[in-house]
Amino acid sequence: MAAPRRALVVIDVQQEYFEGLLEIQHPPREESRARVVEAMAAAAVADLPVVVVRHEAPQGSPVFAPGSPTSELHPDLAVPAQSAQHHVTKEFASVFAGTGLEEWLRERDVDTVTLVGYMTNNCVLGSAAAAEPLGLTVEVLSDATGAIDIVNAAGSASARQVHDTLMALLASSWAAVATTQEWVDAVRAGAALPADNLVESAARGRESRPAQG
Fold it and tell me: How many CA atoms are closer than 13 Å to the CA of 173, on its beta-carbon side?
């Protein structure tokens, strides 16, 4: 099997998720940010393309407003981001929507995108789903992403519940899910991450149900 032609896509590691209204709650944001930086360093050593993505909302928005302090990248990314091969500004959840990123990746024969950053429950999920019809293989690093607590008219879920559930959902269909260290090991070996699928995930789910009396 040919080695994956990877690009690391760093999604929205902006101050909004550390000092703004959307503070990441799980995994702990300081830890997940450190894993993002670790993945960027490993990508640089392996000469993998790195794409740094920033979200930008309309002027006056309560989050990601252009020029606002919380729209800036986290300071820990200041140096590694300078070495990134490509920078993208987006306005939708998907990193592919209206950004030209797909074309940039295809010009470099990339067939696998590794997603890190924020949030699991919005831009990571949206980007992974959007990659499917593009024919791109997706990897998501579970400890280099993060979620928030959610409460709305439909119900509520803790950040841990959101993150863990979405990692299982992504692994069942849209992505190979791994830790940063597992990914670094795969990059060094030139190997693909092991992937699951919906049918086998469903079969295991069925087998795990309690027997009906």
Answer: 13
What does the pLDDT average to over 149-175? 97
Q: d(Cα 138, Cα 65) in Å, to the nearest integer? A: 29
Q: What pLDDT score was predicted for residue 199?
A: 67
Q: Which CATH superfamily is domain 6-208 in?
A: Isochorismatase-like (3.40.50.850)
CA atoms within 13 A on the CB side of 142: 19
Which is it for the CA torsion 177, 122, 135, 187, positive or negative? negative
78: its two tokens: 């200041």
| C-alpha dihedral sign at 112, 99, 131, 138 | positive
Show the DSSP H helices in the chain as ranges: 16-19, 29-45, 78-82, 101-107, 125-131, 159-173, 180-189, 198-208
How far does the chain reach from its first CA to its final CA, in angstroms?
A: 47
Give the global pTM: 0.95
Domain boundaries, the chain: 6-208
Helix (H) / strand (E) containing 156: strand 155-157
Residues 6+ apart with CB under 8 A from 189: none
